[in-house]
């Protein structure tokens, strides 16, 4: 049994690595970079991209490249090919007339394999305004939902996982009662509590997209805090890997579109309320200091971090990586929208009044409008899963203290130094008032 559970933990780690989109090193490297160090321009200002093809860090001569340039996720406005006699060239990338992002995607073929590189230029991104509408009853809708949730008892259950405990930390699987239209369901997660007696701050870790087990945020717990890492699908988070694979390709495939035509039954209603319920549980713990609570996550988890902080005033800090579910209506204005790309060219069937209206109640932008507490936000210009065109409008409307840590080159992944910086910031915020 212990071996099986550790396999689950390893599977969870591998899945997190895969889902993060961390790039894999390849023999041939195709480098693309704009001519401004910060990759940022003013509308009307022309961008030039330097393209280089290398092997063993040496330019590869006589390489044929193919490139396309245009607003991200939109049809290219320029396509062409070039022979790089010396292995490098400079391409005129044009400009944008308004705030937004333009992307240059370059490919080449060597010995039957295709290599790809890209770079993205931002044009006054801090002026990007949201495409999503703000429903007049947005606050009332979520106030009513939270009131309904509060009527359910927690009915919390904790199971110690001895094989995951460390010298300093006890690790549990927990499940608590959560909201669902018609009947309550369970919310599962991995709870880590320092063994030493005392009162501790808490960190809620919310998950990226997919269906998988979880190992718990042990490293942050070892630094002197309670951590709770939750799943969102109402299933235990320490089962055999095959269970999650089967669910992800079966019953839970495409869960992000379930009941999109009904704002009261949309899949993410239970998910968003589950994040609030997780906070209810944290506040019930005798080891919690009752005050210092933060939330963090990436992609779908970045979205849930903003949603949770916008929904629940008990959250005092947040750290969000490349938030999904942001300005999803961008495609309706002929520009990129956020994951899960509900309204792009592949989902024209979603272009109905009911579905567009439902999405507005769940869009990260409208929760970002509610955030008053300090937060750090981080992403890159090259993200093809959560386009910066969709993320910047959310950041731009946040009224509370905020910092945007840009790592322009990154796609849907993070540098270790980037993650370390966010974790250190969260740790400092959570512990400075109790030192």
Biggest sheet layout: 9 strands, mixed
CATH superfamily of the largest domain: Alpha/Beta hydrolase fold, catalytic domain
- Residue fraction in strands: 25-35%
State the share of residues found in helices, binned by percent: 25-40%
User: Ends: how far apart?
Assistant: 41 Å
Number of helices: 10
Question: Under the CATH scheme, which class of the largest domain?
Answer: Alpha Beta
- Mean pLDDT equals 94
Radius of gyration: 23 Å
Comma- or semicolon-separated keywords:
Rossmann fold, single chain, Immunoglobulin-like, 2 domains, alpha/beta, 435 residues, five-stranded mixed β-sheet
SSE layout and pairings?
Elements: H1 2-19, E1 28-34, E2 40-41, E3 48-55, E4 58-59, E5 63-71, E6 78-84, E7 88-92, E8 100-110, E9 113-123, H2 138-150, E10 157-160, E11 169-178, E12 185-194, E13 200-205, H3 218-221, E14 226-230, H4 241-249, H5 267-284, E15 288-298, H6 300-311, E16 317-321, H7 353-362, H8 364-368, E17 375-379, H9 388-396, E18 402-406, H10 416-431
Parallel strand pairs: 2-9, 13-14, 13-15, 15-16, 16-17, 17-18
Antiparallel strand pairs: 1-3, 3-4, 3-7, 5-6, 5-8, 8-9, 10-11, 11-12, 12-14
Describe this structure in words.
The chain is an alpha/beta fold. The chain folds into two domains: 28-127, Macroglobulin (MG2) domain (Immunoglobulin-like, Sandwich); 138-434, 3-Layer(aba) Sandwich (Rossmann fold), CATH 3.40.50.1820. 26% of the residues lie in helices and 28% in strands. The protein is built from ten helices and 18 strands. It has helices at residues 2-19, 138-150, 218-221, 241-249, 267-284, 300-311, 353-362, 364-368, 388-396, 416-431, and strands at residues 28-34, 40-41, 48-55, 58-59, 63-71, 78-84, 88-92, 100-110, 113-123, 157-160, 169-178, 185-194, 200-205, 226-230, 288-298, 317-321, 375-379, 402-406. Strands 10-11-12-14-13-15-16-17-18 form a nine-stranded mixed beta sheet, with helices on both faces. A five-stranded mixed beta sheet has the order 2-9-8-5-6, with no helix packed on it. Strand 3 and strand 4 form a beta hairpin. Helix 5 (267-284) packs across helix 6 (300-311). The radius of gyration is 23 Å and the shape is globular. The two termini are 41 Å apart.
